[in-house]
Each structure stands twice: as structure tokens, then as C-alpha cells.
Design brief:
The complex is a heterodimer of chains A (302) and B (332). By secondary structure, chain A is mainly alpha-helical. Helix content of chain A is 69%, strand content 0%. Chain A contains 16 helices and no strands. Chain B has 332 residues and is α+β, with helices and mostly antiparallel strands. Classes of the chains: A mainly alpha (302), B alpha+beta (332).
């Protein structure tokens, strides 16, 4: 474990090799540091600029946006725009769409994790006829993008009467070959002796799964949760297809629904406020789980 | 505390026979070491006793009860694994208590038994730590502790010392043996290290290619190897083998003489060329090449003169130290 240095910690070190001359080193390092930071700041500013524009647009009034040039500093309509977005929105209140998105994203992330943990457990630890075939069948679904099977999936969900429901939003997206594959790879690195020791200790398969395998996969689960939460949050096409009732709209597709059709006038400040609100939950999840997330991607805990 | 008996135990994977029938009766409290080179089936044999491998034919009995079909946890055994197999996310205490917790032993008793084991193994101050915060020797002790707290009838060790450095290995060897004596538990211990086998065993099983070549007390096996393989495997440096053709004898195939019984003497039975010598301080090992190309070793006192490299010397031994083997490697 100690022999496995954290690559991120390494990046934080100065990239240049240390020189024996202390004076020169400080100067050189100083200049390099400034240049590096300058580069980073420019990069961040470049990427951040559109988000800043969206934020500015969400704090001004409609006429101000339409009149060129576009304002670059926040206006005084922040509370007015955001409260309008949250409480009434355009088709449905944004708070409701946020809730819908949250339920869908959590449902997809947790469901995917639960299902793929169990299927990886079955594939790695049990010898049953057709084990290889099942694994490859799961693997095969990786090669079919959602869009290819979206029409039959719609048909199935419609027949189940799941249109405009949380089940309809979550269930078709809940199986994950990627996550199953990831957990399978992780379980294969767990030494066999651990399973045997548990067996000698008297733990049955499910006990072994919950007491030993699950806690050991903690960091992997966290990393996957972040990725899958964002995946679920950003679902666009599927919710667009199956939610016709505005109260079941999720926020990402909701933004599109807010665009005017025909000659209506777009309420851009409210749309922009909605966009900013839509970004907050994924950002919070990433920041909150950053530590576990990075550990999960970097180290393989033994 | 219990007896253990193996009756013509066999194992095959598909069509390949791995163990060709091993029988032994182990007395209560006896320390049995199974020794052999890699791939001889010694670990498989142990895992069959543990219940981690199925038994193809034959019977294993623990305390007179047939256990062939019994799950590992109900066999009243505890096992120490080669890489310790500690649960990485649990503290030392939880690692040791896990088996008891599953067996639904009351909490105060678990606490008692773990504390007792920890005291015995000098692990008291480490109980809250995670395995990765321990040294190799300490992890080894935790693995032992996990076995001890269950108060099993039979201890099974699968090469428990092979991951430790040489010095620690010698120390743990003594500790394991002392512990086993103190607890009086029957033990089955697998190793490929013949020194471990010699020093720890009450009796040892020397395995070769799935066959128990010889079962006996260490010194008896050393003095009286049953096969050519045992003579070559037990003892370091290994026994010198002279082909009968070279000695001009009939009725035998190989003649074995231990290095300490072989000496350099003028006008001996054979001539050999000195290849190189190793002076170890208390003794020296002289490696020589026989006319037919075989290498032999002479173990002699440090004071005895070392022959110059490349010089030709005579080799001699006393007739009563000779061990003769037939073409199939059996002792004559």
C-alpha cells in the first residue's frame, strides 16, 4: 500500500528537477509556477465563461438580455428570476423537475450499483451452468447504445403502463454492463483465500458478500455512484420520450421544453436560472464525494 | 483436541490424479508436517481435510467422525493461510471475532476469548488496528489468533511462514511450535521447507508426486529414507548419489551417502575433481565433480584443509553409512 504513491500528490510537486544552486532554484521554480498558474487560469476562464454568461443572464430582466451588447455583470433580478423559476417555471415548477431528476438519478445510480454488484458476485463466485455465456451476454449489451433499442423499450414500458412514472424513468436504464464488468474485475483481484477464510469461519455466501465483499468495494462503489448519478441526471432522450405530463418532466429535458415554439417569446432569464439550478446537484455530488471518488479510481485496495 | 485419520484419501481433477491415496492416523495433540516440493499435492491434501476441496475417494475422520461431506465450519477445524487472508477492512479484534460472531457466541465471551488469544500472541495493543497497519509477523499472529479463538479440534497451516523474511521465519517457527504444545491441539502443517519440517514435526509426511513416500519422525526419516526422493529432499545439502556403474557394483542402481559422511581422503573409493568450496565458518562445503559428471558435496570441519579448485582428490565413506536404492528409487 505504501509502495503505491498517490499520482495526484505527485502532480502537486514541482515538475522540474531540483537544482543544487538554491538561489537559482527558487527563481526558476517561481517563474515556472507563475506560468503554470497563468495557463491554468486562462483555461479555467475559457471554460467558465459560458457558465458565467448563463449566470449573468439569469440575474437580469428579459429586455436587458435581448438588447445588444449582452451584459457581462450580474443584474438585480436574481431573486425575482430564481423564485419565479423554482415556484412556477414555464411548464412546470423547476423545484418539481429537480425532484423528478433527483429521484431518477438516485434510482438509476443505486439500482445500477445494486444489480451489478449482485450479478458480478454471481459471475465471479458461483459455478453454475452457462456462467460464461451469461457474462458475455451482459457484456454484449455494452455494444448496443440506448438509442438502438429505444423504440422497443418504449413499447415495453408503454404496455406496462409506466409512461409518466418514476418506474418508467428508472427501470429501463437500471441494468449496467459497465458497472457489472467493473465489479467483476474488482472481485477477481480479491484473493480466493479471503472467501475460503470466510467459509472456514462459517460465513455463507450472502454473509460473505455483505460482511466482506461489500465493505471492500466501498471506494469503487463511491466512484461509480458519482459517475452513474451524473449519467442519470443528464438523461435526455428517454425522459423526453416517455414523460408527456409536465409534472413528470426531468430538469435536463425540461430546459428544452421551456424553449418557445412558434412566435412565443422565450423567457430567457428564467431558462438560464433553470440551467444554473440544474448544474448544482451534480456539482454537489462530485464535490461531496471527491475524496472517495479519486481513491476509487486510483487505488486498488487490498 | 482430537484425533484425525486419513484412510486412502485420493483426489483427482477430471482425469488427472493429484493424490494417489494417503493414509495416516494422527494422535491427539500430535504435530504433523506435510512436506514436499511444489506441485506434489501437499496443499491439496490439507485443503481436503479443511473441506475446501472435495474428496474423490477415501475417508477423512476427525475424532472418529466421518467428515467427507461436512462443511468447513462444522468440521471443528481452523486454518491459517499462506497470505494470512485477513479481512482488510476489519480491525484485528473483528478479524479474530468474526467466526465467533457468526457462530452466535455471546458478546462477553467473544470479548474474553479474543483478549485471551491476543494476550497469548502479544497482540493486545494492536486490537484496534487494521491489518495493513501491521508488520508481516504481526499479521501472521493475527491469523493464528483467528484460528485460536475458535478453539478448534485441529489446526491446519498452509505454508504460513513462506511470506516472512528468513529471520522472522525462524522466530515464528519456534512460536508456532510452542503455542501448539501449550494448547495441545492436533496440527497439520504444510511446508516446502524441509528445515521447518525437521524442526517442528512430531512426525512428517514426505510427499512426492501425490504419493506419501514416507511417514515418520524427522530423525528417523533423515537417518532412514525410504526412497531415493526422500534421501535427496530431506537434508541440506542433499544426499550424494553415486551410480552403481561408477562404483562397479551390481544389484543396486544408486548408492546414497550423506555429505557429512562423505570425506576427502587419499586413495579413496573414487576420484573426483574439486569444483568450488564454500566456507561457512563452523563447517565447509566442498563441491566436487565425479568422472561421470554428477556433482557431490562433502561437508567437513572448518579446520580441514580445502582442496585447490581443479585438483583431483579421493572420495571415501564408511560402508555402514551407505543407502542403496533400486532402479525405481526404492530403498534396498
Amino acid at each position: 500500500m505504501t509502495a503505491n504513491p498517490d499520482p495526484l500528490a505527485q502532480e502537486a510537486l514541482p515538475a522540474k528537477p531540483r537544482k543544487s544552486d538554491p538561489g537559482g532554484m527558487v527563481e526558476k521554480r517561481g517563474a515556472g509556477l507563475w506560468l503554470t498558474h497563468l495557463g491554468l487560469i486562462i483555461g479555467v476562464a475559457f471554460i467558465f465563461f459560458p457558465i458565467w454568461l448563463a449566470f449573468v443572464a439569469s440575474t437580469v430582466s428579459q429586455p436587458e438580455i435581448v438588447r445588444p451588447p449582452m451584459p457581462l455583470l450580474p443584474g438585480d433580478q436574481f431573486f425575482a428570476n430564481y423564485s419565479k423559476a423554482l415556484t412556477s417555471g414555464i411548464n412546470a415548477p423547476v423545484s418539481l423537475m429537480l425532484l423528478n431528476s433527483l429521484v431518477m438519478a438516485l434510482g438509476i445510480a443505486l439500482g445500477k450499483i445494486a444489480i451489478s454488484l449482485l450479478s458480478a458476485f454471481a459471475i465471479v463466485y458461483f459455478r453454475f451452468p452457462g456462467r460464461k455465456i451469461f457474462f458475455w451476454l451482459i457484456f454484449l449489451t455494452l455494444m448496443l447504445p440506448v438509442e438502438v433499442r429505444i423504440v422497443p423499450t418504449y413499447e415495453v414500458i408503454a404496455n406496462f403502463g409506466m409512461l409518466n412514472s418514476y418506474q418508467g424513468l428508472i427501470l429501463p436504464l437500471i441494468a449496467s454492463a459497465t458497472a457489472t464488468f467493473l465489479f467483476r474485475q474488482f472481485f477477481m483481484t480479491v484473493p480466493d483465500e479471503l472467501a475460503e477464510a470466510a467459509r472456514v469461519d462459517g460465513a455463507g455466501p450472502m454473509r460473505f458478500f455483505f460482511d466482506i465483499l461489500l465493505p471492500m468495494s466501498r471506494t469503487n462503489i463511491a466512484a461509480l455512484f458519482v459517475i452513474l448519478f451524473i449519467y442519470g441526471w443528464n438523461q435526455y432522450l428517454w425522459p423526453l420520450l416517455i414523460t408527456t405530463d409536465p409534472t413528470m418532466n426531468t430538469i435536463v429535458m425540461g430546459i428544452k421544453q421551456m424553449f418557445p415554439s412558434g412566435d412565443d417569446i422565450a423567457d430567457w432569464p428564467v431558462i438560464m436560472a433553470t440551467s444554473i439550478l440544474a448544474m448544482i446537484p451534480p456539482v454537489l455530488v462530485v464535490i461531496g464525494m471527491q475524496k472517495l471518488f479519486i481513491r476509487g479510481l486510483v487505488e486498488s485496495e487490498k | 483436541m482430537a484425533t484425525l485419520s486419513l484412510d486412502n484419501v485420493k483426489k483427482s481433477f477430471g482425469k488427472t490424479d493429484v493424490i494417489h491415496g494417503v493414509s495416516i492416523d494422527v494422535k491427539d495433540g500430535e504435530f504433523i508436517v506435510i512436506v514436499g516440493p511444489s506441485g506434489c499435492g501437499k496443499s491439496t491434501l490439507l485443503r481436503m481435510v479443511a473441506g475446501l476441496e472435495t474428496i474423490t475417494s477415501g475417508e477423512v475422520q476427525i475424532d472418529g467422525r466421518r467428515v467427507n461431506e461436512v462443511e468447513p465450519m462444522d468440521r471443528d477445524i481452523a486454518m491459517v493461510f499462506q497470505n494470512y487472508a485477513l479481512y482488510p477492512h476489519m480491525s484485528v479484534f473483528d478479524n479474530m471475532a468474526y467466526g465467533l460472531k457468526i457462530a452466535k457466541v455471546p458478546k462477553p465471551e467473544i470479548e474474553d476469548r479474543v483478549q485471551q488469544a491476543a494476550k497469548l500472541l502479544q497482540l493486545e495493543s494492536y486490537l484496534k488496528r487494521k491489518p495493513r497497519e501491521l508488520s508481516g509477523g504481526q499479521r501472521q499472529r493475527v491469523a493464528m489468533g483467528r484460528a485460536i479463538v475458535r478453539k478448534p479440534a485441529v489446526f491446519l497451516f498452509d505454508e504460513p511462514l513462506s511470506n516472512l523474511d528468513a529471520k522472522l521465519r525462524v522466530q515464528m517457527r519456534l512460536e508456532i511450535k510452542a503455542l501448539q504444545r501449550e494448547l495441545g491441539v492436533t496440527a497439520l502443517y504444510v511446508t516446502h521447507d524441509q528445515v521447518e519440517a525437521m524442526t517442528m514435526a512430531d512426525r512428517m509426511i514426505v510427499m512426492n508426486g501425490g504419493v506419501a513416500d514416507q511417514i515418520g519422525a524427522p530423525l528417523e526419516v533423515y537417518a532412514n529414507p525410504a526412497t531415493e526422493f526422500v534421501a535427496g529432499f530431506i537434508g541440506s545439502p542433499p544426499t550424494n548419489f553415486f551410480s552403481a556403474a561408477l562404483l562397479g557394483r551390481s544389484g543396486t542402481d544408486q548408492v546414497g551417502v550423506r555429505p557429512e559422511h562423505t570425506r576427502i581422503a587419499d586413495g579413496g573409493k573414487l576420484r573426483a575433481t574439486a569444483a568450488y568450496a564454500e566456507a561457512l565458518g563452523a563447517e565447509s562445503l566442498v563441491h566436487l565433480r565425479l568422472p561421470d559428471g554428477t556433482m557431490i558435496t562433502v561437508r567437513q570441519d572448518a579446520e580441514a584443509p580445502l582442496p585447490a579448485e581443479g585438483s583431483e582428490v579421493g572420495i571415501a565413506w564408511d560402508a555402514h553409512h551407505e543407502m542403496t536404492f533400486d532402479g525405481a528409487g526404492r530403498r534396498l
